[in-house]
Amino acid sequence: MTFVEAHVDVDGFRIRSLIAGDGDSLVFIHGGGGLHLTDAHDQLAKRYRVIALEVPGFGTSPENAQSGSYPDLAATLVSAAQKLGAERFKLWGTSFGGAVALWMAIGAPDAVEALVLEAPGAILPDGGIRHSSTPAEMRSRLYAHPERQPIAPPPDPEILTKQRALMDRLTRPSRQATEAQLASLNVPTLVIFGTKDSVISPELGRVYREKMPNCNYVLVFDAGHEVAADRPEAFVSLVSDFLDRREAFIVSQTSSLLHP
């Protein structure tokens, strides 16, 4: 599937996106490593109009010194999606992007039809997330099978520093405040963790399930932090079924383990 680059001006930012497919809009918010696409994006673009947004301050975009908090950033990205023709959309966020996507749904629940949170970073383990010291260590922590992933060019140190500075600077609502918002968010939600996630404990997925009134929580067997990259076929099958069927979702609203 060929993704086409597009840009939209919102809140003083020029926001880059990659778009492919037809049908209902599925907006994607990337993780802390920046915007990159996997086979899961290609497969989902055969069913939906996938809009992958690049968070302002990531990639080659200028430093983002404007967004002050996760809710601020989330509001900007809702506006960007709508300017790209997705007035109401399905939403998928991974890791850091999962936290942003959650606050997009909290801030604009009428705009979000359904929410997929892949190893979301909205609620963190005690002590936060440990940064990886080398690219090799990062790969070993992100994937259950790093040997199966394509080798990307070495990241630009200046871009990494800029992105890390933004994530460190954004004001994060307290866990108590986040959980209070979860209880009032009735958007149909699917929370996905890999059983081998070594970045965020999969057990934290239970918090979303317990606090949110309309939430499914699924563990994907033999997947690490980036579930969609480790197990693309399983991820796409799971997400598509949830997005298409909602109440008739094949997995019941109890903690479940998806085997191969």
Main features:
single chain, about 260 residues, nine-stranded mixed sheet
Strand and helix layout:
Elements lengths: L3 E7 L2 E8 L4 E5 L9 H6 L4 E5 L16 H14 L5 E6 L1 H12 L4 E7 L16 H8 L14 H13 L5 H10 L4 E6 L10 H7 L3 E6 L6 H4 L1 H14 L10 E3 L2
Parallel strand pairs: 3-4, 3-5, 5-6, 6-7, 7-8, 8-9
Antiparallel strand pairs: 1-2, 2-4
Structural account:
Helix content is 34%, strand content 20%. It is of the alpha/beta class and 260 residues long. A nine-stranded mixed sheet has the order 1-2-4-3-5-6-7-8-9, sandwiched between helices. Helix 3 (96-107) links the parallel strand 5 and strand 6. Helix 2 (70-83) packs across helix 3 (96-107). The protein is globular, with a radius of gyration of 17 Å. The relative contact order is 0.14. The model has no long low-confidence stretch (mean pLDDT 92).
**How widely separated are the two ends?**
25 Å
Helix and strand composition category: alpha/beta
Mean pLDDT: 92
Counting DSSP H or I runs of 4 or more residues, the number of helices is: 9
User: How are the strands of the biggest sheet laid out side by side?
Assistant: 1-2-4-3-5-6-7-8-9
Give a quick account of the main beta sheet: strands, pairing sense, barrel closure: 9 strands, mixed
Oligomerization state: single chain
Topology, number of strands: 9
β-strand percent reads 15-25%
Radius of gyration: 17 Å
User: What is the helix/strand order?
Assistant: EEEHEHEHEHHHEHEHHE
Helix content percent band = 25-40%
- Unreliable stretches covering 5 or more consecutive residues: none
Dominant shape? globular
